[in-house]
């Protein structure tokens, strides 16, 4: 007798599963040093990515489109507002080192997003052309 294929969870369940390691981060912060915090953070990121892929696969087309529109418009407006704030911060001559670090962190975030976008965009077109 053939075994039944395992049943996948509803899409929202993967969102909840992605949050589970966040419960472990406070313990890592209180118990361990930098190495444990870094390891727990990396695991949390990897686990979240894994759950996101499972979540995406469980969505129907209208739900996927809603997420794409929300990420494009919401993310673009959000990063634009933050960019304007960062530019505005440069007009204050008394910028301290933490503020400069924040500005550089923002800059690198935007660059990383742009590079990721370009890679996926080129891959999307290459997949349809070749």
Structure, described:
With 130 residues, the protein is mainly α. 78% of the residues lie in helices and 0% in strands. It contains five helices and no strands. The protein has helices spanning 11-19, 25-31, 34-57, 61-89, 97-129.
Structural class: mainly alpha
How many β-strand runs? 0
The topology string of helices and strands comes to: HHHHH
Please work out how many helical segments DSSP would assign.
Answer: 5
Cα end-to-end separation: 43 Å
* Molecular shape: extended
Residue stretches low in confidence (pLDDT < 50, at least 5 long) are none
Q: What's the rounded overall pLDDT mean?
A: 83
Domains (count): 2
What fraction, in percent, of the residue positions are helical? Answer: over 70%
Radius of gyration: 20 Å
Oligomer: single chain
Largest sheet: number of strands, sense, barrel closure:
none
Percent strand equals: under 5%
Question: How does the SSE layout of this entry go?
Answer:
Blueprint: H1 11-19, H2 25-31, H3 34-57, H4 61-89, H5 97-129
Nutshell version of this structure?
The protein is mostly helical. It is built from five helices and no strands.
Keyphrases for this structure?
single chain, 130 residues, mainly alpha, 5 helices, 78% helix
């Amino acid at each position: 007798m053939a075994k039944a294929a395992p049943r996948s969870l509803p899409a929202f369940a993967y969102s909840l599963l992605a949050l589970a390691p966040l419960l472990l981060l406070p313990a890592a912060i209180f118990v361990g040093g930098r190495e444990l915090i870094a390891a727990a953070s990396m695991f949390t990121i990897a686990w979240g990515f894994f759950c996101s892929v499972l979540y995406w696969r469980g969505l129907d087309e209208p739900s996927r489109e809603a997420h794409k529109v929300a990420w494009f418009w919401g993310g673009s407006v959000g990063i634009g507002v933050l960019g304007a704030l960062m530019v505005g911060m440069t007009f204050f001559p008394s910028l301290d080192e933490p503020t400069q670090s924040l500005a550089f962190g923002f800059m690198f975030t935007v660059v990383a997003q742009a590079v990721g976008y370009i890679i996926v965009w080129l891959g999307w077109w290459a997949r349809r052309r070749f």
